Amino acid sequence: MGGSERDLVAALRAELAAIDPSRPCDRRAEAAGLGTASTNREGPVARLAVRLGRHRTAEGDHDDDVAGPAAPFGFDWPASPEHCRMAYLRGLFLARGSLSVAGGRTHLEFVVAPNEAPILAGRLDDAGMPASWRLRRGRGVVTWKSSDTVGLFLRRIGAGGSLLELEARQVSRALRGDLNRVLNAESANLQRAVGAAGRQIAAIDELADDGRLAQQPYVVRLVADARRETPEATLAELAERLGIHRSAVQRALERVEWLVLHGDEGGATRGRRTTPTSRRPRRSRALA
Fold first, then answer.
1. For 9-19, what is each residue's pLDDT tens digit?
2. Which one of 154, 168, 202, 230 is least enclosed by Cβ atoms within 10 Å?
3. Geometric angle at alpha carbon 49, from 82 and 130, rounded to 5°
4. DSSP 8-state secondary structure symbol assigned to residue 267
5. Interstrand relation of 132-136 and 139-144 (parallel, antiparallel or unpaired)
6. What letter would DSSP give residue 72?
7. Based on the number of CB atoms within 10 Å of its own CB, is 141 exposed (0-12), middle (13-18) or buried (19 or more)?
8. What percent of the chain has pLDDT over 90?
9. The predicted structure's pLDDT at residue 279
10. Least confident stretch, 49-58, 204-213, 264-273
């Protein structure tokens, strides 16, 4: 992930860490998601942990408010309302989540204990954001690789301006990719057209030098003159200019190239179906 992408992800995490929930229950839920481990937290997340701790001390909250003996991650998910669940997931993302947007691909994952991975995946499924999970080097990893799902998750947990910037970059990258594909296709078509026009003009010049061009039908000579005058024109443009069908232009140019390659009039019948026909012998009339 490049420096620009890393800065954007850092700004997004800082924006999420700066959210100050107004409900005490949301603060308790976010603290439960954030946990108590202090494993090299970045500055904004460390300040969030201190702030949430001060709130809990001032309000006299206890873990029993959000957790029970059977509550994994220290949070009672089934009994909590939607706003508490999103606050909890915000804290969990800041503590155990990572986001990558390298190369136009969006990848968000949570690294948790092995037994917690299926539980978290089930909770995310309950929230309408299904995720996959697996074990990696003794840790549980819950993953999203869909940019739409990642964007929905970040929006629901409170990301704002940074998410808009991230989505704008993704759209811009996709548009650049589409534009490059179109330009590459057009460039390839142009190269083929230039190569064909070059061969046709060389063939026309050769036929004109040895006098065979003057012996060709009127349409062939007409198309040959138009091609020499406008070598950059497409077959459709030549047809429109001459007032004839595109297929007639194509057949005329194919005939010119055929004559140069084969040195005879074989091009006149090239591509036509030549099936033998049986004819009845004519009856001779008796002359009086």
1. 888 899 999 99
2. 168
3. 35
4. G
5. antiparallel
6. G
7. middle
8. 45
9. 43
10. 264-273
Phi, psi at 65, each rounded to 5°: -65, -30
Enumerate the β-bridge partners of residue 99: 108
N residues, the chain: 288
Residue 204 in contact with residue 229, Cβ under 8 Å? no
Residue with structure tokens 């300040």? 47
User: For residue 270, what are its two tokens?
Assistant: 């090239």
Q: In terms of C-beta density within 10 A (0-12 exposed, 13-18 middle, 19 or more buried), how is residue 278 classed?
A: exposed
Q: Does domain 3-159 have CATH number 3.10.28.10?
A: yes
Diameter over CA atoms, the chain: 136
Q: Is the pTM of this model over 0.70?
A: no
Residue whose token pair is 């589409």 = 178
Q: Three-state DSSP class for 84?
A: helix
Q: Where are the domains of the chain?
A: 3-159, 183-268
By three-state DSSP, how is residue 79 classified? coil
Closest among 176, 38, 19 to 86, alpha carbons compared: 19
Question: Stretch 210-223: mean pLDDT, rounded?
Answer: 92
> What single DSSP character describes residue 13?
H
- CA separation for the pair 86, 163 (Å, rounded): 16
Mutual angle of helices 82-96 and 3-17, in 10-degree steps? 140
Q: Per residue in 217-259, pLDDT tens?
A: 999 999 999 999 998 888 999 999 999 999 999 999 999 999 9
